[in-house]
Design a protein that fits this description.
mainly alpha
Length: about 210
């Protein structure tokens, strides 16, 4: 099922295997493989479920690897943007990954979105600006929409809207472009930033 990308079926099979052999390292490895495939297909909720199961049984498999810390954090943010407990856990994971790799732009990008979702918009702005500085132009499409949302929420409305318009023209498929478009439209309809409208929609699971 895993090889054929029948992810829900694979998840059930892994749960059954874990119940039969709770300490099996093979189950942990397969859960990570399933999570990786699910994330590649934007199936963030399934990825969260698998990585949470790994963390519960073998914490070091997540906490000892900055890459998995970062990936789990991003999956939490994408699947559960309005769940402050899960967002907070994601921020903790993201900060921990940066303790190991403090100048990694991808991980700074993840932390910035987590800070935005947690309501620390100024912290998000400073973090994404650092990611953009380190990227030196590369990966801008992955940073620019977090920058726009953080900029607007921090009170820089006109600059945010202007940057957003440029971003849509130059990076129409950038990461989070759809989510930030929803936020900008909400705020502009409300004639300014409204914290009650600051949570983007969760990323829907793919069909099929």
């Amino acid at each position: 099922a895993l090889a054929e990308q029948r992810w829900e079926e694979a998840a059930v099979a892994l749960d059954e295997a874990a119940a039969a052999e709770p300490d099996s390292p093979h189950v942990t490895t397969l859960r990570q493989v399933l999570a990786y495939q699910a994330m590649a297909a934007d199936h963030w909720a399934l990825a969260c479920e698998q990585l949470a199961a790994v963390e519960a049984v073998e914490p070091e498999a997540i906490h000892g690897d900055p890459g998995w810390q970062n990936d789990f954090a991003w999956a939490l943010f994408m699947a559960h943007p309005g769940d402050l407990d899960r967002v907070s856990h994601g921020v903790e994971l993201s900060r921990a990954s940066l303790e190991t790799l403090p100048d990694e732009p991808v991980m700074l990008n993840t932390l910035a979105w987590g800070l935005y979702l947690s309501g620390d918009h100024h912290g998000a702005l400073g973090t994404i600006e650092e990611a953009m500085r380190l990227n030196e132009g590369e990966g801008l499409g992955d940073d620019i929409y977090i920058y726009v949302a953080s900029l607007y929420a921090s009170g820089h409305r006109e600059e945010a809207v202007e940057t957003y318009r440029s971003a849509i023209a130059e990076h129409p498929e950038g990461v989070l472009h759809a989510e930030v478009r929803v936020l900008i439209n909400r705020w502009e309809d409300a004639d300014g930033f409204d914290p009650a409208l600051a949570t983007p929609p969760a990323k829907a699971a793919p069909e099929g």
